[in-house]
Give the backbone structure.
Amino acid sequence: MNNDYFNRIDNVIKYIKENSNQKLTLDNLAGVSNFSKYHFARIFTSIVGVTPVAFVNQERLQKAVFLLAETNKTILAISNQCGFESVSTFNALFKKHYSKTPSDVRNSVKKNRNISLHFSNKQEEFSQFEAYNGIGRNHILKRAWKNVITIKELPEYEVAYVRHVGSYMDTHVAWDKLGRWASWQGLTPNNHYFIGISLDDGNLVEEFACRYDACVTLPNGFEKSGHTKHVEFKTLPGGMYAVYPFYDTIDKFVLAYQNVFSLWLPDSEYDADDRPCLEFCMNDPAKDVEGKCKVDLYIPVKKRI
Protein backbone atom coordinates (compact mmCIF):
# COMPACT_ATOMS: atom_id res chain seq x y z
CA MET A 1 0.00 0.00 0.00
CA ASN A 2 1.07 3.58 -0.57
CA ASN A 3 2.90 4.69 2.60
CA ASP A 4 0.92 7.90 2.71
CA TYR A 5 -2.37 5.98 2.85
CA PHE A 6 -0.98 3.64 5.52
CA ASN A 7 0.22 6.56 7.66
CA ARG A 8 -3.11 8.35 7.42
CA ILE A 9 -5.12 5.27 8.37
CA ASP A 10 -2.59 4.47 11.10
CA ASN A 11 -3.07 7.98 12.49
CA VAL A 12 -6.81 7.36 12.69
CA ILE A 13 -6.30 4.04 14.48
CA LYS A 14 -3.93 5.63 16.99
CA TYR A 15 -6.37 8.48 17.52
CA ILE A 16 -9.23 6.04 18.16
CA LYS A 17 -7.15 4.07 20.65
CA GLU A 18 -6.17 7.23 22.53
CA ASN A 19 -9.65 8.80 22.49
CA SER A 20 -12.09 5.89 22.46
CA ASN A 21 -13.67 7.20 25.67
CA GLN A 22 -14.66 10.41 23.84
CA LYS A 23 -17.47 10.99 21.38
CA LEU A 24 -16.04 10.16 17.96
CA THR A 25 -17.83 11.12 14.76
CA LEU A 26 -17.05 10.20 11.15
CA ASP A 27 -16.38 13.87 10.40
CA ASN A 28 -13.93 13.98 13.30
CA LEU A 29 -12.08 10.85 12.15
CA ALA A 30 -12.07 11.98 8.51
CA GLY A 31 -10.39 15.19 9.67
CA VAL A 32 -7.67 13.18 11.41
CA SER A 33 -7.09 11.13 8.26
CA ASN A 34 -7.20 14.11 5.88
CA PHE A 35 -9.43 12.04 3.60
CA SER A 36 -12.65 13.31 2.04
CA LYS A 37 -15.50 13.25 4.55
CA TYR A 38 -17.73 11.81 1.85
CA HIS A 39 -15.47 8.82 1.15
CA PHE A 40 -13.52 8.34 4.40
CA ALA A 41 -15.64 5.49 5.75
CA ARG A 42 -15.42 3.53 2.50
CA ILE A 43 -11.62 3.96 2.36
CA PHE A 44 -11.17 2.97 6.01
CA THR A 45 -13.41 -0.09 5.62
CA SER A 46 -11.69 -1.21 2.42
CA ILE A 47 -8.25 -1.05 4.03
CA VAL A 48 -8.87 -2.09 7.65
CA GLY A 49 -11.61 -4.62 7.00
CA VAL A 50 -14.22 -3.16 9.38
CA THR A 51 -16.09 0.13 9.42
CA PRO A 52 -14.80 3.03 11.54
CA VAL A 53 -17.82 2.65 13.84
CA ALA A 54 -17.15 -1.07 14.29
CA PHE A 55 -13.47 -0.40 14.98
CA VAL A 56 -14.32 2.20 17.63
CA ASN A 57 -16.76 -0.20 19.30
CA GLN A 58 -14.23 -3.03 19.25
CA GLU A 59 -11.62 -0.83 20.89
CA ARG A 60 -14.11 0.21 23.58
CA LEU A 61 -15.17 -3.38 24.20
CA GLN A 62 -11.56 -4.51 24.62
CA LYS A 63 -11.06 -1.86 27.28
CA ALA A 64 -14.31 -2.87 28.93
CA VAL A 65 -13.17 -6.50 29.20
CA PHE A 66 -9.95 -5.36 30.88
CA LEU A 67 -11.84 -3.15 33.36
CA LEU A 68 -14.32 -5.92 34.14
CA ALA A 69 -11.44 -8.25 34.92
CA GLU A 70 -9.04 -5.93 36.69
CA THR A 71 -11.25 -3.49 38.62
CA ASN A 72 -14.31 -3.51 40.85
CA LYS A 73 -15.95 -0.62 39.02
CA THR A 74 -19.66 -0.92 38.33
CA ILE A 75 -20.84 -1.84 34.86
CA LEU A 76 -22.37 1.65 34.57
CA ALA A 77 -19.03 3.27 35.45
CA ILE A 78 -17.18 1.05 32.94
CA SER A 79 -19.73 1.87 30.25
CA ASN A 80 -19.18 5.59 30.83
CA GLN A 81 -15.39 5.28 31.03
CA CYS A 82 -15.24 3.40 27.73
CA GLY A 83 -17.27 6.02 25.87
CA PHE A 84 -20.62 4.29 25.36
CA GLU A 85 -23.64 6.58 25.12
CA SER A 86 -25.66 4.47 27.56
CA VAL A 87 -25.32 1.31 29.62
CA SER A 88 -28.08 -0.31 27.54
CA THR A 89 -26.05 0.30 24.36
CA PHE A 90 -22.95 -1.08 26.09
CA ASN A 91 -24.78 -4.23 27.24
CA ALA A 92 -26.31 -4.85 23.81
CA LEU A 93 -23.02 -4.44 21.89
CA PHE A 94 -21.10 -6.47 24.47
CA LYS A 95 -23.53 -9.39 24.27
CA LYS A 96 -23.60 -9.24 20.47
CA HIS A 97 -19.81 -9.26 20.31
CA TYR A 98 -18.97 -11.82 23.02
CA SER A 99 -22.28 -13.73 23.26
CA LYS A 100 -22.19 -12.97 26.99
CA THR A 101 -23.27 -10.08 29.17
CA PRO A 102 -20.68 -7.95 31.00
CA SER A 103 -21.80 -9.56 34.26
CA ASP A 104 -21.29 -13.05 32.80
CA VAL A 105 -17.76 -12.14 31.71
CA ARG A 106 -16.91 -10.62 35.08
CA ASN A 107 -18.12 -13.73 36.87
CA SER A 108 -16.21 -16.04 34.55
CA VAL A 109 -13.04 -13.97 34.93
CA LYS A 110 -13.22 -14.40 38.70
CA LYS A 111 -13.03 -18.14 38.13
CA ASN A 112 -10.44 -17.91 35.35
CA ARG A 113 -8.09 -14.92 35.39
CA ASN A 114 -6.77 -15.62 31.88
CA ILE A 115 -8.51 -13.06 29.65
CA SER A 116 -5.90 -13.09 26.87
CA LEU A 117 -8.28 -14.98 24.59
CA HIS A 118 -10.53 -11.94 24.36
CA PHE A 119 -7.65 -9.75 23.27
CA SER A 120 -6.12 -12.26 20.85
CA ASN A 121 -9.48 -12.62 19.12
CA LYS A 122 -9.58 -8.87 18.63
CA GLN A 123 -6.05 -8.77 17.26
CA GLU A 124 -6.96 -11.38 14.65
CA GLU A 125 -9.79 -9.15 13.46
CA PHE A 126 -7.34 -6.31 12.83
CA SER A 127 -4.70 -8.48 11.12
CA GLN A 128 -5.99 -7.60 7.65
CA PHE A 129 -4.79 -4.03 8.08
CA GLU A 130 -1.29 -5.10 9.15
CA ALA A 131 -1.06 -7.65 6.35
CA TYR A 132 -2.16 -5.08 3.80
CA ASN A 133 0.63 -2.77 4.87
CA GLY A 134 3.15 -5.49 4.16
CA ILE A 135 2.09 -6.03 0.57
CA GLY A 136 3.89 -3.02 -0.81
CA ARG A 137 3.71 -1.84 -4.38
CA ASN A 138 3.18 -4.42 -7.07
CA HIS A 139 4.34 -2.95 -10.36
CA ILE A 140 2.61 -5.61 -12.47
CA LEU A 141 -0.69 -4.75 -10.81
CA LYS A 142 -0.03 -1.04 -11.28
CA ARG A 143 0.48 -1.57 -15.01
CA ALA A 144 -2.69 -3.67 -15.15
CA TRP A 145 -4.68 -0.96 -13.38
CA LYS A 146 -3.48 1.61 -15.92
CA ASN A 147 -5.21 -0.46 -18.59
CA VAL A 148 -8.44 -0.54 -16.57
CA ILE A 149 -8.76 2.91 -14.99
CA THR A 150 -8.95 6.06 -17.07
CA ILE A 151 -8.96 9.63 -15.77
CA LYS A 152 -11.60 11.92 -17.27
CA GLU A 153 -12.74 15.48 -16.79
CA LEU A 154 -16.52 15.87 -16.68
CA PRO A 155 -18.57 19.06 -17.08
CA GLU A 156 -21.45 19.94 -14.78
CA TYR A 157 -24.67 18.15 -15.70
CA GLU A 158 -28.19 19.43 -15.17
CA VAL A 159 -30.29 16.36 -14.37
CA ALA A 160 -33.80 15.28 -13.54
CA TYR A 161 -33.94 12.54 -10.93
CA VAL A 162 -36.17 10.21 -8.95
CA ARG A 163 -35.05 9.27 -5.44
CA HIS A 164 -35.30 5.73 -4.10
CA VAL A 165 -35.00 5.02 -0.37
CA GLY A 166 -34.40 1.39 0.53
CA SER A 167 -32.30 -1.52 -0.68
CA TYR A 168 -29.94 -0.77 -3.54
CA MET A 169 -31.20 -4.03 -5.06
CA ASP A 170 -34.61 -2.39 -5.61
CA THR A 171 -33.56 0.75 -7.47
CA HIS A 172 -35.45 -0.46 -10.55
CA VAL A 173 -38.54 1.19 -9.02
CA ALA A 174 -36.94 4.63 -9.40
CA TRP A 175 -35.58 3.78 -12.84
CA ASP A 176 -39.02 2.67 -14.06
CA LYS A 177 -40.55 5.97 -12.96
CA LEU A 178 -37.72 8.05 -14.41
CA GLY A 179 -37.69 6.03 -17.62
CA ARG A 180 -41.38 6.68 -18.29
CA TRP A 181 -40.96 10.41 -17.68
CA ALA A 182 -37.80 10.61 -19.81
CA SER A 183 -39.57 8.82 -22.67
CA TRP A 184 -42.35 11.42 -22.59
CA GLN A 185 -39.71 14.13 -22.92
CA GLY A 186 -37.83 12.38 -25.73
CA LEU A 187 -34.79 11.77 -23.52
CA THR A 188 -33.25 8.46 -24.56
CA PRO A 189 -29.93 6.67 -23.97
CA ASN A 190 -29.00 7.62 -27.52
CA ASN A 191 -28.85 11.32 -26.72
CA HIS A 192 -28.63 11.63 -22.93
CA TYR A 193 -26.81 10.00 -20.02
CA PHE A 194 -28.63 7.93 -17.43
CA ILE A 195 -26.71 8.13 -14.15
CA GLY A 196 -27.22 6.43 -10.80
CA ILE A 197 -25.94 7.91 -7.52
CA SER A 198 -25.65 5.76 -4.40
CA LEU A 199 -25.77 8.42 -1.71
CA ASP A 200 -25.11 6.17 1.30
CA ASP A 201 -22.51 3.55 2.20
CA GLY A 202 -24.34 0.28 2.84
CA ASN A 203 -21.74 -0.58 5.49
CA LEU A 204 -22.84 2.39 7.59
CA VAL A 205 -26.53 2.89 6.81
CA GLU A 206 -29.29 0.33 7.32
CA GLU A 207 -30.52 -1.15 4.06
CA PHE A 208 -34.02 0.32 4.43
CA ALA A 209 -32.58 3.86 4.77
CA CYS A 210 -30.11 3.88 1.85
CA ARG A 211 -30.75 6.72 -0.63
CA TYR A 212 -30.28 6.39 -4.37
CA ASP A 213 -30.94 8.88 -7.19
CA ALA A 214 -31.81 7.70 -10.69
CA CYS A 215 -30.86 10.61 -12.98
CA VAL A 216 -31.04 11.63 -16.61
CA THR A 217 -29.11 14.55 -18.11
CA LEU A 218 -31.12 17.41 -19.57
CA PRO A 219 -30.67 19.43 -22.77
CA ASN A 220 -29.70 23.09 -22.51
CA GLY A 221 -32.65 25.32 -21.78
CA PHE A 222 -34.94 22.51 -20.65
CA GLU A 223 -38.13 24.02 -19.14
CA LYS A 224 -38.40 22.56 -15.63
CA SER A 225 -41.72 24.02 -14.58
CA GLY A 226 -44.67 21.67 -14.61
CA HIS A 227 -42.59 18.52 -14.05
CA THR A 228 -42.02 18.54 -10.28
CA LYS A 229 -44.87 16.08 -9.69
CA HIS A 230 -42.86 13.43 -11.53
CA VAL A 231 -39.18 14.32 -10.98
CA GLU A 232 -36.83 16.64 -9.10
CA PHE A 233 -33.91 18.59 -10.52
CA LYS A 234 -30.31 19.29 -9.50
CA THR A 235 -26.82 19.95 -10.85
CA LEU A 236 -24.14 17.27 -10.70
CA PRO A 237 -20.66 18.73 -10.11
CA GLY A 238 -18.03 18.39 -12.79
CA GLY A 239 -14.32 17.82 -12.31
CA MET A 240 -11.81 15.00 -12.46
CA TYR A 241 -13.00 11.40 -12.15
CA ALA A 242 -11.38 7.96 -12.25
CA VAL A 243 -13.48 5.69 -14.47
CA TYR A 244 -13.81 1.97 -13.73
CA PRO A 245 -15.79 -0.09 -16.29
CA PHE A 246 -18.01 -2.81 -14.82
CA TYR A 247 -19.90 -5.56 -16.63
CA ASP A 248 -21.54 -8.26 -14.50
CA THR A 249 -24.73 -8.99 -12.58
CA ILE A 250 -26.05 -6.16 -10.43
CA ASP A 251 -25.50 -8.03 -7.15
CA LYS A 252 -21.74 -7.90 -7.80
CA PHE A 253 -21.62 -4.16 -8.47
CA VAL A 254 -20.51 -3.52 -4.89
CA LEU A 255 -17.23 -5.20 -5.89
CA ALA A 256 -16.54 -2.35 -8.30
CA TYR A 257 -16.42 0.06 -5.36
CA GLN A 258 -14.34 -2.41 -3.36
CA ASN A 259 -11.82 -2.84 -6.17
CA VAL A 260 -11.32 0.89 -6.72
CA PHE A 261 -11.18 1.97 -3.09
CA SER A 262 -9.09 -0.89 -1.69
CA LEU A 263 -6.90 -1.93 -4.63
CA TRP A 264 -6.44 0.99 -7.01
CA LEU A 265 -6.87 4.21 -5.05
CA PRO A 266 -4.33 3.60 -2.22
CA ASP A 267 -1.50 2.96 -4.66
CA SER A 268 -2.49 5.64 -7.16
CA GLU A 269 -1.45 9.28 -7.22
CA TYR A 270 -4.98 10.43 -6.36
CA ASP A 271 -7.26 10.99 -3.38
CA ALA A 272 -11.03 10.63 -3.46
CA ASP A 273 -12.59 14.08 -3.68
CA ASP A 274 -15.63 15.32 -1.73
CA ARG A 275 -18.18 14.69 -4.48
CA PRO A 276 -20.55 11.75 -5.00
CA CYS A 277 -19.59 8.81 -7.20
CA LEU A 278 -21.50 8.60 -10.47
CA GLU A 279 -22.73 5.35 -12.01
CA PHE A 280 -23.18 5.84 -15.76
CA CYS A 281 -25.62 3.17 -16.95
CA MET A 282 -24.43 1.94 -20.32
CA ASN A 283 -27.08 -0.73 -21.03
CA ASP A 284 -30.42 -2.14 -19.95
CA PRO A 285 -29.72 -5.38 -18.02
CA ALA A 286 -33.20 -6.65 -18.93
CA LYS A 287 -32.20 -6.57 -22.59
CA ASP A 288 -28.67 -7.93 -22.11
CA VAL A 289 -28.21 -11.47 -23.45
CA GLU A 290 -26.49 -12.47 -20.20
CA GLY A 291 -28.68 -10.35 -17.92
CA LYS A 292 -25.69 -8.27 -16.88
CA CYS A 293 -25.41 -4.55 -16.30
CA LYS A 294 -22.77 -2.42 -17.94
CA VAL A 295 -21.80 0.53 -15.75
CA ASP A 296 -18.98 3.04 -15.91
CA LEU A 297 -18.26 3.92 -12.28
CA TYR A 298 -16.90 7.47 -11.95
CA ILE A 299 -14.97 8.06 -8.71
CA PRO A 300 -14.29 11.77 -8.00
CA VAL A 301 -10.57 12.30 -7.50
CA LYS A 302 -7.98 15.00 -7.03
CA LYS A 303 -4.21 14.91 -7.31
CA ARG A 304 -2.57 13.88 -4.06
CA ILE A 305 -0.59 16.72 -2.55
